[in-house]
């Protein structure tokens, strides 16, 4: 029985999440029953949605229970199998949580999926060719429905969702403008991710100033926006939306801690006949095969080269996660566990 | 040549609109050219959208020019005709503006439409069987897309849009809950307009309190909301929206004067995967025939009995309009001109 290091949620944040909300514990992996496999995790995915789960409030999902292993996506390798569906050595993606190993029943539909690492590195199944990629795909294709020539904006542009969104929008003939924090990320968005322009929100201290910068980057206004951030950035974008613009709302990191951030000019929804729509990608499993196919092709052909921020070892997960919430990561935030 | 009394926009509001923004003037109606008709207005419609036009700011429509007759819908009778399309005595609906007479070219598509007053009183073509009715229809049918059994809410429930919305939603098997100001309006909504319940927002001084009252009136939550007001009411409704709820945004009266009113909890858009969509009914002329047919039938069969607030004489229009913005009207606000 290998020893399994785990991170549990020890207590809930009162305002900003802190390292002491988490606790590192250790256990033996249990003996497998029939139909079960033991997966050794190679990478753990850290994602903004986890912050919402840490609160004990009404949301679209159950709160993360105290004293249990934090929820999280993982990729890894089957190291022991009592299932006819999985063989030792299979590469798999699943929801193994913040721990080094997980035991999975093979009859839990969709909990574990074999993946092919011939053309796509294993870690990318947690990012561009995983949940974040499909999130970008759904928001762009199903909510924003872009036409060639339209101007399409995304916040957190160099993150896992943003970079996939950029590649998907470029493939549809759009002008793609990112919003990111700092000159390095903005340069990366343009030079490596193929964005047409990228605005550094850290240079602006209010929505009016950021909105002016967006006007320069989007001379024809904004037709579609993928909301990852909320707060000042959303206010600034709203001021530049064209008539009949569409906004897909997927994350509002800026509002997870403490007080909610208001939307300053809701009247613009009417003035510009906007559609604003929230979604959770796990509720739209029917699109995953189509989305993953396109995303896998973009990665395999080099049109989407997602960047990763990799923390080392399960004990580093809490600090890496808090950094993600503050935008300290540069690309998809992972924790390497082997 | 009959004398034509007119109300022009004399100066723009600096904050709240006031009577002195308007000016009553008088002119002779001009001699008709070929293809023109002279319409004597029986009723002028007063509508919240006019407040937006009074500002000189970017909006979906051009601002009302200073010194010109205020824009507005009218119904009336053709009193002189040099057009083969209209005869003296025809009852017509058009956009004649705040004046007693208008001259209309018969080749201005859609500017003048003959109506049948056999089963529908002429004035209702400015309300339930006119622009406000179609507004309710579009928001309900095309944006909210209600299913039987869902709970559907509307603010300004006894107004022209709200009362039509209520009848249309009842016809679709929904639970229909209104929000209105004062016990008389709430009683009327339930007793006369067929709402299942109506919440008096004036009994509540903040969104949290109003939201509690909505919880009682909507024990199964809110699936669709038609936004006529904005501000505190929108905040309160958002707190009660069910997952996958839809909000049609048509008016935000509360924000027309002075400072914009923020939306306090935009994160709920994500949490409850809401769709919020703004629209202007004049951009969807393709639905008018279908909508007017249903609305006309509801009125003719007594299932929609819209109430009217009627001011007397063109000089009374400014004060009646300002009252409308404050919710002083009870039902569709009209000005009777004959």
Quick overview of this protein structure:
2 copies of one chain form a homodimer. Chain A is an alpha/beta fold.
Features:
homodimer, Quinone Oxidoreductase, Chain A, domain 1, seven-stranded mixed sheet, six-stranded parallel sheet, 15 strands, 26% strand
Structure commentary:
The structure is a homodimer of 338-residue chains. Chain A has 338 residues and is an alpha/beta fold. Chain A has two domains: 3-127 and 306-336, Quinone Oxidoreductase, Chain A, domain 1 (Alpha-Beta Complex); 131-282, NAD(P)-binding Rossmann-like Domain (Rossmann fold). Chain A has nine helices and 15 strands. Chain A has helices at 49-54, 131-144, 160-171, 183-191, 207-217, 232-238, 267-271, 288-300, 317-325, and strands at 3-9, 22-28, 36-45, 74-81, 91-94, 101-105, 112-114, 151-155, 175-180, 197-200, 222-227, 241-249, 275-278, 308-312, 332-336. In chain A, the strands form three sheets. In chain A, strands 3, 4, 5, 6, 7, 14 and 15 form a seven-stranded mixed beta sheet that branches. A six-stranded parallel beta sheet of chain A has the order 10-9-8-11-12-13, sandwiched between helices. Chain A has a two-stranded antiparallel sheet with strand order 1-2. The model of chain A has no long low-confidence stretch (mean pLDDT 93). The interface between A and B is medium-sized, with 32 and 32 residues.
